[in-house]
Amino acid sequence: MDLLLSLPIVSYFAGPMLTSWSGSVNLLFFYMTWMTLVLSHSPLKIELVGTLAVRIVFWLVPSLFFLLFDTLVPSLAESIKLYGTSSLPRRDAVSLLRQVLLAVFNLALSTAVQGGISVGAGSLLKRPLFKTSTTLPLPFQILKHIWMLYTAREVLTYYIHRFVLHSRGRVGKLHGAYAHPRKSAAPYSLMLYTDHPLPLLLHRTLPVYLPAMVIQPHLLTYFLFTILTTLEETSSMSGYSIVPGIIMGGIARRTSTHYASGGRGNYGAWGLLDWVNGTSVGKDVLKDIQDEAEKHQVKERGQKAVSDTGSMVQDGIDGLKKSRKGRKKSADS
Predict the structure, then answer these.
(1) Which residue, among 37, 36, 14, has the nearest Cα to 24 in the 3D structure?
(2) Cα–Cα distance between 191 and 241 in angstroms, integer?
(3) What is the reported pTM?
(4) What is the pLDDT of residues 269-290, one digit of tens each?
């Protein structure tokens, strides 16, 4: 429970922007909680339990909820699924249970591999892999490290996904059999961890953990990066057409197109390297951002028009009331 309380790093990151008394109290509470964790638990335990908690809270729980929604209310889920009915999970209890068990196994395996690497790296470095001190990282340092981690992750994800997972070798065949068993269908969030263990480690664990090993940021920065990437992957793998945001909506559509096309393109997480290398399938990242921006502008214009219309109506009503009051006064006099 203590470790779970250490996860809301966003409260610290937003701390300098909050001038209210409540913001200062939240920041103080966060710091006291983090200091207690650092002084009472080993860095390895904080890293592994914290990372596992992030994946459970931001991937496993939402993906199980989405799975229940897709299977229990298929008529409603179909209307918001990219590629319609074909994107719904099979309503086979045995098959779904196997997928859930495989996903949980892969999650445990990924955590165990991370733990093994951390122990080995710590033995070589004679210190923990990540900075685990009571001193909190500065916001600028967090932004710099997050940018570096995201850049490295995009490069690794694209080239591993394109040239290893979709090659004709053994790993490519395993990835095709486990991650792409359905054609012309979008994925669902549980499928994030239902790949074969080997391609899963290469696709989901390595691009996130290897850059962190090289950069060695503060552990809180690594937690924030893990939260952001887990939320992104859970949303993009949902297969829903209603994923909010100018950026995330495009990522979700490109991910769904990747799965529906059988892996013919859209290998990167953000689509930038697909655009550069000409491997985009469907709309590329620039077209997606442009379309989403236009949609948001249309929505904003519509909301403004409704608001203006409402104000005009209210002004008219107020004017009528005033005129009636004026007539009554003149009649009384």
Answers:
(1) 14
(2) 17
(3) 0.83
(4) 999 999 999 999 988 788 877 7
